[in-house]
Amino acid sequence: MAIDFTLAPEHEEIRRRVRAFIQETVIPAVPDGLPREEYLRVIFALRREAKEQGLWLPHMPREWGGMGLGHVELAMVQSEAAKTRLGPWVLNCAAPDEGNMHTLLHWGTDEQKERYLRPLLEGSQMSCFAMTEPEVAGSDPTLIRTHAVQDGDEWLINGHKWFISNARRASFAILIAKTEPDVPEGSRGGNTAFLIDLPQDGWHDVREVETMHGSTGHSEIVITDLRVPADRILGGRGNGHRLGQYRLGPARLAHCMRWISQAETALDMMVDRALNRYSHGSLLADKQGVQWLIADSAMELYQCKLMVLHAASKIDKGEDFRTEVSMAKHFVANSLNRIIDRSIQVHGALGYSTDIPLANMFQHARWARFADGADEIHQMRIAERVIAAYRDSGSTNAATGGLPL
């Protein structure tokens, strides 16, 4: 039976190299309080070093300058890189650029790949993905109100977007707009993806949305009479929903890979605290209540890793991975929140303070339960597929991983 959770020697070597680069080079190079000019100089120098060490674009094919890793191998790279928030960006496999690279590679024309994909791969440009709108539910793209009307060889676009990550640093956007106004409500064929050069007349970056962890690059955009050439359609007219779903599936799993790293960091900190904090006659590690927090976190982290590896293997095999990715996205996002919360509890007032990173990690973790699909939407889709599997075969096995047990 071909079930093997070990890495090939060459991939184990890649993991070792990524870990060493992140721990020994990246983290020490960016201490807290670095002046902005020095910070920028350092992080771009780190990117150059990643290229030199052959750790650039782990998710892209070799013919496009990447490392040619599959999703299973990418899981190990993302989890090592995400030990620091800068890690995925330094290796050029961070959101939203990572998902946009996959999208352009799959859907772009040759001209679009050279104009938009190539600079992303080289690290000379950044991008954004503009789909979410404040007036309608972000988890239902069929409700999008931003609309594009054909005017000769151009399209005229008007609308309103928000939480567009990276917009202020982007050289272009992949924008989702409704082009087919006559399709029935709920139809998935009404939207089209456009490539928008930035900055451009008609694209107004109104503000950076303040969140519970500060201003973090999520912009509100008002689009007014923005003109786009017809050859800037990405993936064909009416294919915006298909393109978005193609992008979001692997992107959700890449988020999970990075979240596992954060959860593991929180668990490491929890155990270290328990081994070094003395209270009421013994170390915290000797107290059953604290042991339960550690045990629950370890079991959840184990489940997270297995779910991500299995979903990644289905993507690599070209199998239908939608249910497994939905399950992983829901479970890992919630586990991340719970494990960080337990770690804060074991640290007490120190964990609640900003003297250590747990409070900031907890603030960042909260978005995981609605980003790239709210918990409830994933639960709805999972339930639909479980019911459908039973109707088709009299068994739910196909919707619970299709595993041989």
Give a brief description.
The chain is α+β, with helices and mostly antiparallel strands.
- CATH homologous superfamily caption of the largest domain: Butyryl-CoA Dehydrogenase, subunit A, domain 3
CATH class of the largest domain: Mainly Alpha
Number of helices: 12
Proportion of beta-strand residues:
15-25%
Q: Span between N and C termini?
A: 12 Å
Pattern of helices and strands: HHHHHHEEEEEEEEHEEHHHHH
Strands, count: 10
Task: State the secondary-structure class.
Answer: alpha+beta
Q: Describe the biggest sheet?
A: 4 strands, mixed
What is the residue-averaged pLDDT? 95
Share of helix among residues?
Answer: 40-55%
Subunit structure: Homodimer.
Domain Acyl-CoA oxidase/dehydrogenase middle: 128-224
Pfam families: Acyl-CoA_dh_1, Acyl-CoA_dh_M, Acyl-CoA_dh_N
Family: Belongs to the acyl-CoA dehydrogenase family.
Question: How would you summarize the topology of this molecule?
Answer:
Layout: H1 9-29, H2 36-52, H3 71-81, H4 87-90, H5 97-107, H6 110-122, E1 127-130, E2 147-151, E3 154-165, E4 172-178, E5 191-197, E6 203-211, E7 214-229, E8 233-234, H7 240-276, E9 278-279, E10 282-283, H8 288-316, H9 322-347, H10 349-352, H11 358-365, H12 375-393
Parallel strand pairs: 1-4
Antiparallel strand pairs: 2-3, 3-7, 4-5, 5-8, 6-7, 9-10
Helix pairs in contact: 1-2, 1-3, 3-7, 5-6, 5-7, 7-8, 7-9, 8-9, 9-11, 9-12
